[in-house]
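Journal club prep — side note

Before the paper discussion, L.F. wants everyone to see what a predicted structure for a comparable chain looks like in token form. Sequence:
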Amino acid sequence: MSFQDEIQRVATEGTLGVVWLIGDDGKIYYTYGEWAVDPLVAFNAWKAQNPAVNLGGIKFTVIAISPERLISKNMGGQGYVIVAKCANWPGAIVAWAPATVQMDYAYAAAARLAAKVQG
């Protein structure tokens, strides 16, 4: 399954509502969906391994942070912001998942997308 096919699958399932592909150079190379939050804030927090994430005035609590991922949950119960490092390309997938999706399932979907990105 291609990257585009995987995007369509997770969007149709409702697993991830918004997806960005961001390079290590800080450029956004792909966007699916819209959200009023700057994905670079989450990407830069992950790169700096900084657990304090404030996205557009919305406070997120970081649940997991490592060189491979960042998982954060909105304190208002509106969902998750996830960063998953790409294995074969210098960058990461940044995604938003609704609160109705189980956190581990949302991260797995973002990680599958990250694995599909080829450099």
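L.F.'s comment for the group: Helices lie at 3-13, 39-48, 103-116. Keep this in mind when we get to the figures.
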